[in-house]
Prior knowledge:
The protein is mainly α. The protein has eleven helices and no strands. The model has no long low-confidence stretch (mean pLDDT 85).
Amino acid sequence: MGFGGQHMSRHRRAADRAQWSGSTVPMQVWVLTTRSLRAAFGNYRLVFFGLLQPVVLLLLFSQVFAGVTALPGMGSYAGYVNYLMPATLVNIAMITAMGAGAGLVAETYTGVIGRLRTLPISPVSVLVARTVADTARLAVQLATIVVAAVLFLGFDPDGGVLGLAAAVLLTLVVGWGLSWVFVAIATWQRNIEVMQAVSFIAMYPLMFSSSAYMPLENMPPWVRAVATANPLTYAIDATRALALGRSPGWALPWAVLLAAVAALGGAAVAARNFRRSA
Length: 278
């Protein structure tokens, strides 16, 4: 190529750069989400243990708490697995949300976040893609645990396929809201050990002081008071009602509202911390 051709080529590239206005935020989120999903599902060990974990949890809790079926009020559920399974969906959502925070910290340590910061993209896109990818991963986990419960534990919800689909959809909404809380924690505390300690302190009291494993009526008064104020109780009650074909009452709007508050609050804190650390 002669001097004239090289000059024209440089001129064309400069013109292209001048015309390029950058990718849109939705496109950034899409590209980053697919990148996260390829990384997650490209690791067969992560896929295997990620799908095995909810199955083990369901098998463990369904056997350990099997005696709960003798308590008053449990007879209407026709088996403890029908009572436990919707709560297990929400618990899996919480564990996956905790993994979203841990994953963000891990990407910070491995330099992935640092490389993304050098690109002409919105910092918020990185955080949104993180939560969307983990919600997609949660959907696969929920589908796996539902199939396992139906095939091996006799899970037979009265709500049928539609009720179960609604319960799974609500669980995804709750899981997405919770993932923002743990992403916010990850942007605040980047030490993986401290991050895990804070997450477990939040997770276990919420799980065991809720209606996940037995009705509130059978709890001691002070535990019942804590469980009534526990936001996870509303998500579990609504998911259980939808799966079993019962009226969720006020539990459904409360669950959606609390998930929205968690998402908006967590997103605001995470975005602020993420920008400050740039």
